[in-house]
Write a sequence for this structure.
């Protein structure tokens, strides 16, 4: 007689939660100053989840991208601006109640 293992997965909970992650983006000295922000985008990556006592802990990173209009420092040109972008990765861990 052959013994088989059967694994059954089922959804036990469902929840939607907005998690706010704050941080500063500092323009390096080698880049020109920001005149105005054109667009921002963030992509989260969850690499670990832990369920404990009705709570879930998420560990991950969020890659943020900032497109901006920069001052190139020239004062005698007709157009003294250009488009640049910054990328920053920020680690986070958050607990969410189920």
């Amino acid at each position: 007689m052959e013994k088989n293992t059967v694994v059954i997965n089922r959804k036990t909970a469902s929840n939607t939660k907005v998690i706010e992650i704050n941080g500063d983006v500092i323009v390096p000295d080698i880049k020109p100053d920001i005149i105005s922000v054109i667009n921002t985008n963030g992509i989260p990556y969850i690499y670990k989840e832990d369920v404990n006592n009705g709570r879930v802990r998420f560990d991950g990173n969020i890659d943020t991208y900032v497109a901006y209009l920069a001052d190139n420092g020239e004062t005698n040109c007709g157009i003294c601006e250009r488009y640049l972008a910054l990328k920053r990765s920020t680690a986070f861990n958050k607990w969410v109640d189920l």
Remarks:
- Strands lie at 34-52, 55-71, 81-97.
- The first strand starts at residue 34 and ends at 52.
